[in-house]
């Protein structure tokens, strides 16, 4: 994982609040156990080992729930497994006096990214084990206190974690919609500039050129020479302005993977091709978005024009883009000028282009940087 992505994991109001709350709760509630460990008549090696197990558990309690953010459910399950293992070592070394750490364990489980309802099941199981343990000790008056604490804290942190994830998803969706709106507005402005101003300047240039040719057939004189010079200047100005408009339009119509993804969806649907496209481009770094946009444009264009496919699938990762279909297969599509241009762009970025048969039965275009 890059340092930037690791920084994003621990950045933001959610992680900051978690670290503050976790640190405060550890300082407030952990000291009785520290006193117990160092006050009992046990070998120094046992005290050091018990203290190390507590330090390891509370470090994992503080870090692992936030580490699992924006990662796979497998990572979340591994984090919970590590927390359970470390807590088991603490209880094994210290004994029943360490069972008070279970509310901390419930909070960590609630904050860890897990599959739906898994955190609820784990918290309820932990509460049930705590209740059975307290009843087995013959202390029914206090038997329900810790299980209730485990349930309340665990469910509260689980709800808090869901709120953080939903807020992040909403912000990502807002960013994506804003990018799409900007891309659409740029395309509209570019189209209007090209269709209106570009057309007018073209007409001016053509008429100025025609007037200059007419003057060539007119008898000479100072007035004719001056008029010809003025018309020549108008013609040059019109051509320069037209070139500026075209350059500006080219800048407005810069390729972006987000805009190309929206265009691909429209093009495939219009062609009657089933589109299996990613819902977001958040995973694509900014430095690759233009390159991946070119790849997506060329790949989808080939699918629509040449494949005869019924289905097209696009996959995006942080370093790769894949466009494949179930059409007629590779054939002559790997030798077109468009793909040659893609090879040059990808080579400039230090990547590789792979062409061949798709798992769907058609053509496959894959770029890896």
Structure report:
- The chain has 369 residues and is α+β, with helices and mostly antiparallel strands.
- It is 70% helix and 7% strand.
- Strands 1-2-3-5-4 form a 5-stranded mixed beta sheet.
- The longest helix has 72 residues.
- The radius of gyration is 33 Å and the shape is elongated.
- The model has no long low-confidence stretch (mean pLDDT 79).
Quick summary:
This protein has helices at residues 3-9, 13-29, 31-39, 44-67, 73-94, 102-111, 118-136, 145-216, 222-252, 257-270, 286-307, 337-348; strands at 274-276, 311-316, 320-325, 352-357, 363-368. The chain is an alpha+beta fold and 369 residues long.
Describe the global form. Answer: elongated
Instruction: Give me the strand/helix succession.
Output: HHHHHHHHHHEHEEHEE
Strand order of the largest sheet: 1-2-3-5-4
Helix content: over 70%
**Secondary-structure class:** alpha+beta
Distance between the termini: 16 Å
Extended strand count: 5
Number of helices: 12
Residue fraction in strands? 5-15%
Biggest sheet descriptor = 5 strands, mixed
User: Any idea what the radius of gyration is?
Assistant: 33 Å
Indicate the low-confidence ranges by residue numbers. Answer: none
Average per-residue pLDDT, rounded, comes to: 79
* Count of the domains: 3
